[in-house]
Amino acid sequence: MKDLTDLKRRPVEQVIAGLKDESKGASTEAGSNLVAQAKDYGLSLRDYLSLAVDTRSGEFAEQAQKAGLSGYELSVAALGLPSRNDFNEGVLLQASSESFQKFPGTRAMFPEVIDDMLRWKDRQDTLETVAPLLSQTRTISGTELLSTVVDDDSSERGTQTVPELANIPVRTIRTSQQSVQMFKHGSAYRTSYEFNRRASLDILTPYAARVARELEIGKVGAATSVLINGDGVNAAATVEAITTHGGTINDLSVNYKALAKFLMKMAKDGVPADVIVGNYDMFVDLLFMFMPTLASDKVEAREMAMAGAPGVNLSLPIMNNAVSFVLSSGMPAGQLMAFNRGETLEELVEAGSIISESENAIRNQSITYVRTETSGYRLAFGDTRRILDTTA
């Protein structure tokens, strides 16, 4: 994978040169070359054009500066690939369909134009998304080995104060012989030549929305599996029965104190949680746990404090709006997983995998809308995850 610092910015007409060549063969070759260049840097086509296009030079510079366009937006405008109708400006979405038919090389932009089109349409929010589960996302160009953290044998571990002349506790990050398992997520819709000639491009909106949602659900499922079962080097998450925290089984909604003790124990052990993951049923249980009630009983200490007596501010960042719920249908029934987001799960995305399918659409009569991504997940620390089992 090439270093991004080596990417030279050029005027848009140079970056997209040949895509609208009258020769179908030349247009196809230009589209394939553009996709290959983006893959070399491990970027999606949108990100590549944003970096590669210099909006301050070339024949379109004035237009870009006036409208505040990014490199990608300027490329779409220069190619005549609108993502919505604007009758006041004489812009027709059908122009994109005609460009995709006449100039095969522009089909490399097909997924991006459809994504832009979705932004102008009403659609249901994706309930399951992988981003809230991740500490970070990295792009890799080859095999990534799993790693683990090993403590030394220092007797001073467990304190942040190092006595004079004592050894500083050291943790060693070691790589294993096992690699991160990569999975391909996503789906596609192929449109026929006749469809492209007769149908408006925005007819694909509901289909593209489902592709995007299915991609996220697939990634959430893979990430949840690693969180539960480990990554092959770090072990599976510890499971604790709700009864060990003074709770009763099979109804989380009446077990607020047990949940608080579970989270407090994680904080005491040095791994405070800021994320809770559960399925749809557990979400409903939590919803009813925090549902207000019209209780006639009053807490004496609270009433005294409101009247001016001494009070205690208990706003520790353990449950006081500091723990976020993340939905995952891959979580087992009756279980909640808690972990520290910043120290737990990392996503690795294979360089160029987001756009690898674009090349097929360039060379075929049909146009295929593809959204796929090859990614894997690894754990940074193995001790940050715990599962609260409400069935035991």
* Cα-based radius of gyration, to the nearest Å: 27 Å
What class would the helix/strand composition place it in? alpha/beta
Query: Which ranges are low-confidence, i.e. pLDDT below 50, for 5 or more consecutive residues?
Result: none
Distance between the termini: 49 Å
**Number of folding domains?**
3
Content of β-strand: 15-25%
Helix content: 25-40%
Quantity of strands, as a count: 11
Question: What integer is the average pLDDT?
Answer: 83
Give the count of helical stretches. 13
Strands across the major sheet, in which order? 5-11-8-6-7
In short:
The protein has 392 residues and is an alpha/beta fold. Helices cover 33% and strands 18% of the residues.
3D structure, described in words:
The protein is an alpha/beta fold. It has three domains: 1-120, no CATH class; 123-141 and 183-291 and 316-392, no CATH class; 145-179, no CATH class. 33% of the residues lie in helices and 18% in strands. It has helices at residues 12-15, 24-40, 45-52, 61-67, 71-79, 94-102, 110-119, 193-198, 205-229, 256-268, 280-289, 300-306, 358-362; strands at residues 136-140, 145-151, 171-179, 182-191, 238-241, 275-278, 324-327, 335-339, 345-350, 367-379, 385-389. Strands 5-11-8-6-7 form a five-stranded mixed β-sheet. The model has no long low-confidence stretch (mean pLDDT 83).
